[in-house]
Amino acid sequence: MTATETHCPYCALQCGMTLIPEIPRVKLEPLGFPVNRGGLCAKGFTATDLLDHKDRLLTPLVREVPGDRRCPLREATWHEAFTLVIEAIRRSQQDYGPDSVGAFGGGGLTNEKAYALGKFVRVALRSAAVDYNGRFCMSSAATAANRSLGVDRGLPFPIADVAGAKTLLLVGANPADAMPPSMQYLDAGRAAGAKHIVVDPRRTSTVAGAYLHLQPLPGTDLALANGLLHIAIRENLIDEVYIRERTTGFDAVHAATNAYWPERVERMTGVPEVRLRETVRLLATAGPAMILTARGAEQHSNGTDTAQAYLNLALALGLVGRPFAGYGTITGQGNGQGGREHGQKADQLPGYRRLDDPAARAHVAGVWGIDPDELPRPGLSAYEMLDRLGTPGGVRVLLVLASNIAVSAPNTNRVRDRLRALDFLVVSDIFRSETAELADVVLPTAQWAEEEGTMTNLEGRVIRRRRALPPPPDVRTDLQMLTELAGRLGRGEYFTDDPRAVFEELRRASAGGIADYAGISYERIDAEQGVFWPCPSEDHPGTPRLFTDGFPTSTGKAMFHRVEHRDPAELPDREFPYVLTTGRNMQQYQSGTQTRRVKALTVALPEPRAEIHPDLGRRHGIADGDLVELRSRRGAAVLRARFSDGIRPDTVFAPFHWPGVNALTNPALDPHSRMPAFKVCAVSIALFERG
Ligand code: SF4
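^ thats the input. predicted complex w/ iron/sulfur cluster below
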């Protein structure tokens, strides 16, 4: 049997693994790929369970009575399923116009599929309605990085550089649970004397090895960053030469931080002044320092400005572009980085180009062989599109790829209502997800080990997903589905289902853009263990480290932006007195469509747990292990309580991998990135049932 080197289907670390298709089961071995160096987490080790899982979708499904979602789903032929989809698209566009049909993509799609989906919506559907679930996880940090540094690449350096930082500030990041093999770099850094500071309202597994743990009230991370910068300025710890030579806009930021004196920041955040001062001294004086943010800092109604505040701090300390130093954001989804580069975003074209930029429109239209005027204008962001489904002017026929929005979107009661209000819902997935259960047509798709393509990991390293075995006989790839649908819509000549051909076109479409893949080929990826973008030509080595010589901004300098603390969109009150913050468990991934079906993972963690402080529990007559009901203004969820004295007594933590928790979360959007405020909403808690 032939061994195939490929990558884990889950998170953005994209650990390397070898698959050997032995009978009766595919054998999996960790690979010494540069990011994981032989490490895998429990999710990766059990990923082959997905391939022959008994719940696997093996044939298209349609409703017993087409159009009547009260009827059960039944098996159908591809021809029947496609015919229903095409009829629904034609009917809707005839009656309500092109934008009445839209698509919702995902950060797990390969680069080829993300590219093809954006093109399918613009060229085959001629619609503006496309966005994806990365809007829910990366858009705030991406927006801040784009406006400040001129480019958004999660880590602008290889992850191995983390081991060389002498001080590491992790804000709202829990890599020990989210991507355990990455901890080898943190462990190596600490073994060499580095000091790590974790900012998190919970004492997470990542905190266990940290030198300092700062526990701010959720929603005050921006104030914390401005307070750190205030101290750095007052103690003459900023890098004035760097600020003068490599940045613009510092004076306005300097003026803004006057209001963030340590005593006030201590009152706002709950973090003692002495710890604020120690953090600044470590960042400024202990050697190369790195600041990494993740969703805990970013999923807020002020998430862009919060990410910006940490960027401001990194720039003022002269960290960005220096060896083993800088600012980065830890991408979560498997292709969260590539997924946001190739055009499945409402406002974007391939190459990380803007859809409202005439030059970008002309370039991409030229590659696609259409007139630039045929390209629609930017559409609505993910939650805004979902919120208007089935309403006048909203999308009425929706195609969902690689996303389980009935679980992962905020305010899911509302989102499920809107999905039910659609005239027609099509879902492509490998399992009958909660979103697929609401669909008119479900299309069974090939999965990771059955398909070819590329992914771009959290470092901006473009890697190959290689096919180790064929998909089941009646299962198709998403590229095959999109190509077939485009053909039936009369636009088949613009599409191909060959991933390599799609990638070659993607290279041309991205050429000259921010995320320039022009010099990257499948052959180079094979030969070089991945290639870092930007890589504008075949003789270019790729760019593992950004900003060493300057910034791709209009001035060539990084831009400070003045940012101010704003209260979260929803604050605790008498009725809902606590802050709910959501996050990850080590055993689960995203909405759990895949990992909730893996036995070893569910045995290790059978159900979600609401983490609360014992004092909070006692106040409400709740004991460890009881079932509790959490309520917010939007819904309720019942979870088992887990006591922890490592969480703030005013805060409740719940994982988002199971249905229910996002019924509580607040869809208030960040004004810049349109990202929802997953990380703060006001809740009440009450005993539901004794454990
Ligand atoms: Fe897969 Fe991420 Fe675990 Fe690596 S860390 S094995 S990529 S889930």
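The chain has a mean pLDDT of 97.
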